[in-house]
Amino acid sequence: MAELPPNNQGSPVGAGGTDAFQSLVLDIAMTFINLPLDRIDEAVHAALGQMAIFFQADRAYVFDYDFAAGITSNTHEWCAGGIEPQLDLLQQVPLAGIPDWVGAHLRGECFLVADVSRLPAGPLRELLASQDIRSLLTAPIQCDDTVIGFVGFDAVLDYRDYGENERHLLTLFANLLANVTQRKRSADALRQQSEALQRTNARLERIAHFDTLTDLPNRNLLADRLQQAMVQSHRHKASIAIAYLDLDGFKEINDRYGHDVGDRLLRALAKQMGGALRAGDTLARLGGDEFVAVLLDQAASPQSCDPILTRLLEASSSIVTIDGHTLQVSASIGVTFYPQQQEIDADQLLRQADQAMYLSKVEGKNRFHVFDTAFHRAQEGQNRRLDEIRDALRNEEFLLFYQPKVNMRTGEVVGAEALVRWQHPQQGLLSPAAFLPLIETHTLSLALGSWVIDTALAQITSWRQAGLRLPVSVNVSASQLQQQSFVQDLQARLGAYPDVPADLLELEITETRALDDIDHASAVMAACDAMGVRFALDDFGTGYSSMMYLKRLPARTLKIDRSFVRDMLVDADDMAILQGILGLASAFRREVLAEGVETEAHGVKLLDLGCELAQGFGIASPMPGGEVADWVACWQPPASWLRGKEA
Hints:
Largest sheet: 8 strands, mixed, barrel
Helix content: 40-55%
Shape: elongated
Strand content: 15-25%
Distance between the termini: 73 Å
Radius of gyration: 40 Å
Number of strands: 23
């Protein structure tokens, strides 16, 4: 419908009133500028009242347009005394019923109805008549050439004919509202962006420090809290206890009912165990079914934390019902205390608690074992065991077994790792765990290390004479590497085997064993590399200094520790760590080899992640040197590993 012609008769604003109105608008503008944004709505309502009184209107209002939804809604309203409010009734009014009204606003024009009774019958007349409106004037509110709403006045008690002055002045007021709306929208957008940046930073912070499955602290946060607890222990002269907990029978439940049930069981037990601790204590999940509790303010005796450990055992053996299945496991707990007579770091504390946990499993599970007791027991027979090892070296009781390393994608055998074994006269074949920890800081480790290198070089010579060219890697202890004569001794040993090229020997150093002088170690490695002897970082990712070791030690190969590879198919944290290590290796241009490949599925997943080199029982068990050539000749990788060979 066409807009009615303007008529200045009866207008409340004459030429002399324009200045007064502009002064009013200026006052309102200054109020908006100086007012906090959270009070803008209050100020808009007050301004509507001032404007309505000045224009002698009975009702003043602001509407928002929602062109996408095809509606308009009343957002602010002021009514004179005795005038019925309409705000609640005028929500989501269809635009289809007022096309002339909307069209005028979209053209940037005011919309005037001097006499509602003169409108033709239709939706607009019905809408206005239902509110007892006799006359109205509205002006569009525009932001950046976009109409976002309108402001208007109603005459209810008498007819009004608003002239050009009123239209002009109402448009000024509409522009002021547009500026206020733009300011508020900009502030709201900034606030929303800030809030989003904060729900993101907080989320990243939580992911970095909390286990995604149980919401318990993860390895990183545990390391931080344990370090803080150790500092507080010294400051307040109080002891702390570190309890290493491993669930008994969880693997069977996981295998029988599936990983989803296993995960839900872990979440339930984590909640139960967390409730067994006191405020200030920490329960963290290391991964899989392994947890660590840091117990504050303990006396350095087994009895001091008995009540808490008993509650932990009871919580871990709680009956849990999932999908109709009644599930129950138990826990083996190893405990150690800090401080000790000799200074010890956080990593060593965790290893002590881990060893004690292993003994609790040996003793029957569903119990706790205190490391101090086990340590004292071991001390009684340590000297005797050292004598046995010394005799074993003299009597040539040590053997080297070799575990092949392969390229899973091509099927190529790329080398073998030399692994020492002890053929004990009474106890049979012993693994390194039975004797290497005893000599880790003893001079016997140097003698055994030299024997391993000599034996490996002799084996390489034997293989070459049989037509097999296969690189061999041997483990080198930190103390062995830091010997001042290490480079010269290695050069002499290579000279004793002239048929062995230096590039067929690789030395592996274990990342978790701290190097007292990393500068010296780096220089030694560089000197060996210049001779052609390569280095690898073994057990990568298990220590707290991976980045520093990676940056400063010139190792060409990173060996991913089997603990991450073993559970990567079922543990999201281990998979994330594995992907992170592969990313670091790529960034630092290092070759990567995965240990612990036990199944075909492990190999498939590693290949998907871009890791081609591997070793593990899923490929071959360690074997005597005399069996390696036949194994190499017969080795065939699974077909699923060879899918990219042609490419």
